[in-house]
E3 ubiquitin/ISG15 ligase TRIM25-like
Amino acid sequence: MASATSSESVDSELRCSICLETFVCPSTLSCGHSFCLRCLEAAWVTASSFSCPQCRATFPVRPQLRRNVALANLAEQLRVGDGMATAVVCDICGDGQTPAVKTCLRCEMSYCFSHFRPHLENPRLKDHAVVDPTASLDERRCRNHKRELEFYCTVDRSLVCSSCTIAGEHTGHKVLTLKDEHEKRKTRVGEETRAVEEKRKKAEESVKRMEAARKEAQESVAGIRGRITGKFARLRDALNEDEREALRRVAVKERELLSRIEEDIARHKREIGELQAAAARLRALQHERDSLAFLQVGSASVETPLGCPREQSGQWQRGSWCKERDPKEICTPTFHFTGRHHDPLP
């Protein structure tokens, strides 16, 4: 809250009491009050006497109006803080709009082209130091003597004014004019610029070489990737064909095996039926009490091996009918298939 009040107080002190705007080229009267230079001139155009618009203090003659540099700098800082900073304007025009083309360090004022012309034509003004338009003149003056910085001390490596070289702490030091030091450093900067440009060109050439190498590497990798993809695609096609052929052969073997197994099952079922009939006859014979009948019936049974089934041809297959196959031989098929990319199948 206190900070806001302080800011408002400073703002009010930097406003012209005539136009109520932030000072533009402020000028301070001997009574201590300040106004925009253009506002004062406008107020005195039709006045019969010259007086302060604020305190009404009168002056016997028209005061010489000069720009208050410190107050102008504060006003400019206020405009910067408020986002109102504009280009440097002519202090003589006083309209706050006409842009300045030069700033005179001796006069401490900025001029538009028409008002700067006297500095080009008047011999007494030609020796004034002029620079590009600037609103901050304090930076171009010596802090100790408030005079224009004109020299460069080579001993202390600092900017100094003429008073510093005569009666100040730089007395006896080797000094150069700002122009001479400027040219000297400009030459050195030119050499450094050329060195930097040379390094930049070499760096650009290196980048071009590396970019070319990157492109070549990318193309090489793309080619390798394409060859690998093509090779494995062909391998997959071949493997798929081998798989289909192997499965086809397995299916053929499966049909052959199942057919044999079905035949064996049917034969065994027939044998089981015949054996059951033979067992029934033998049980009946076992209970026969008549010796003659037993022997008559039993003689045929003795001639024929007990329990041996008869084939469809009616002939007994002695010794061969009861020989059974190994279940592994019946149920385990053997395949001999060799794919193009595989070991023989088990």
Observations:
- Residues 219 and 225 are 10 Å apart (CA to CA).
- The two ends are 96 Å apart (CA to CA).
- The first strand starts at residue 26 and ends at 28.
